[in-house]
User: What shape does this take?
Amino acid sequence: MGRMLRSSDDGAATHFWKAGGQGAIIRRMGAEAGLTETAPPPADKPGFWGYTALSAGDVLKTYRYLLERAPKEHREFVVGQLRRATQCGTDGFDQYFGIPRVVPRPWAVKQGWSGFGDVPAVRCREGTFRGVSGPYLGVGRPVLHTTGIVGDKIFVVLTLQPAGSSFRAAAERVNRLTRDLYRASR
Assistant: This one.
């Protein structure tokens, strides 16, 4: 679980998705957290946890649930792992865009990306920043998300990128949006 939270480990996410009942996780926790704009993946793609539909408002509610209502040991574990987010995801993508790139610590983040290929054109190395690009897969438009806890605030930046966007161009857009959000929040 820790590796999944810190390093966006898809294999671990798939393991927990299957072990927890796939879409039943979304229905169960959606009801618990009061989510109204979140739904499991389409019926024809039950194993694809990444196809879960969600809104920025529901991501905000999820963080509020975690911080205000989740059992203390769960909150401490999850937030502790998000504070230790690694620069490189286990798939080789650089996950230091958005909050980790433009907001000073302390923060706790969970990043998300899809539609940039299975492997980055330039593999991430801890302690460096290299923009990477990948092919557009035609599965839908690429997405790049940065969410997290910044001081006493919750930031949620969910983006749907133009078709064919490179990971680097998408990251630069998310960095600008996050920088503007951070400046406005001060």
